[in-house]
Each structure stands twice: as C-alpha cells, then as structure tokens.
Amino acid sequence: MSQSVLSLKNVTIYQESKSVLSEVNLEVNHGEFLYIIGKTGSGKSSLMKTLYAELALTEGSGSVVGFDLASLKENDIPFLRRKIGIVFQDFKLLPDRTVDENMLFVLKATGWEDKIEMQNKIDEVLSKVGMKDFGKKMPHQLSGGEQQRVAIARALLNDPELILADEPTGNLDPQTSVEVLEVLKKINANGKTIIMVTHDYALLMKFPFKTLKCEDTKMFEVIQQRAV
C-alpha cells in the first residue's frame, strides 16, 4: 500500500492576502511523478512555496513528509526542508564555488561533519545525474543543462522523500529540457516522489505522468496525450 508523502484537504492558498487557489484537495503517494501546469499567476508557484513553508498554510489542513503545515513552527522549517529537495528554474548555484564546494556548503549546513562521508555522498549524487567528473568546475564553466543537473544532484544530497521542481527546464532549450527530464524520470524510477511545475507541454506529451492544472483559483486533473 502506497504511503502518502503529501496530503492537502480543503486548502486555500494566499499570495499577499489574495486567494490564488481554493478548495485544493491533493494526495500524493510515495513514488509518484506529478506535473502542475497553468498560466502565470494561476497559483502554481504559491502552491510550491506553501509545500516548503515559504508561505504559511492558513486555511485548510495539509501535511508534507510527515510535517503538519498548519501548525508548523518556525524552528521546524529547516527539518521539513531537509526532507524535501528543491530544484529551481534559475539553478541557484553559488557562483564563487566549484560544483563540489556547492555540495559541501549544503551538507555542512544540514549537519554533516565527516569529510570522507561528505565526499562519498557528493560523488554518489553527481554520478546519478551524469556529472561526477565536473566537481572541480565553476558554475560559469557549465552549460545551462549541466548547471541544472548539478542543482538536481544538490536536491538529492539529504536523500529527500519529496522533490519539488519549479520550472526546472524554464531556462533550457528543448533538447536540454528532454535530457533533464530523462534525469528526473530515472530518479523517479528509483523511488523518489517528484512534483514538477512546468509550462512545457511538449515534455508532458513525451513524458506522460499525472497532470494537475491550476485555473480560475481551482486545481483539477487533466488527461495528457502521449506524443505520436
């Protein structure tokens, strides 16, 4: 029986006191891959921010990776985020540090201390995304697709239960976008739960998974057709 990683019941999501999504009911089980689509301003990113507690849940009930969002205290947020891997559109790599140093920064910030264990973990996650030989490179020496692979590896460092990918291919060309989706698909096939916000309908057809659409303050499932 699948274990619920995320559960939202009768949730209303606000952005600066304005309701952007209402009556949201969502259950995501361990190992699922879920797309969220919709126009700019339809509430997709606000939903994601609510899931990693950048926006507070003030109406309805919700739990993410075992944390109750409605009663979440400020000092619990770092513990929630250690169980969630977040991948952003603009990579958010530290520009003055190598790939390995970007990884070390995250590990040290989340309590890792043993140097050998840290390097082994860095090698492991970079291998998963095909970037093991790039540890000494600076971000500016990498293509956009390579930077996003590193960002995905970074999201895997603490073995998260859930990966939130907010427009991870938004700054990439079509072929590179496909390559990044192949990486995410492989990670999902190995058991990771992934929720991905996207505008790229070509990817939805090439890699069909359950798809929810945000529109007119509501969220509902849509059926995507596989590309012929």
From TrEMBL:
Keywords: ATP-binding, Cell cycle, Cell division, Nucleotide-binding, Transport. Residues 6-227 form the ABC transporter domain. One of its GO terms (biological process) is cell division. CDD domains: ABC_MJ0796_LolCDE_FtsE. The lineage of its organism: Bacteria, Pseudomonadati, Bacteroidota, Flavobacteriia, Flavobacteriales. Part of the ABC transporter FtsEX involved in cellular division. Important for assembly or stability of the septal ring. GO terms for molecular function: ATP binding; ATP hydrolysis activity; transmembrane transporter activity. One of its GO terms (cellular component) is plasma membrane. Belongs to the ABC transporter superfamily. PANTHER family: CELL DIVISION ATP-BINDING PROTEIN FTSE, IMPORT ATP-BINDING PROTEIN. This is Cell division ATP-binding protein FtsE. InterPro entries: AAA+_ATPase, ABC_transporter-like_ATP-bd, ABC_transporter-like_CS, ABC_transpr_LolD-like, MacB-like_ATP-bd, P-loop_NTPase. It comes from Flavobacterium micromati. It comes from the Bacteria.
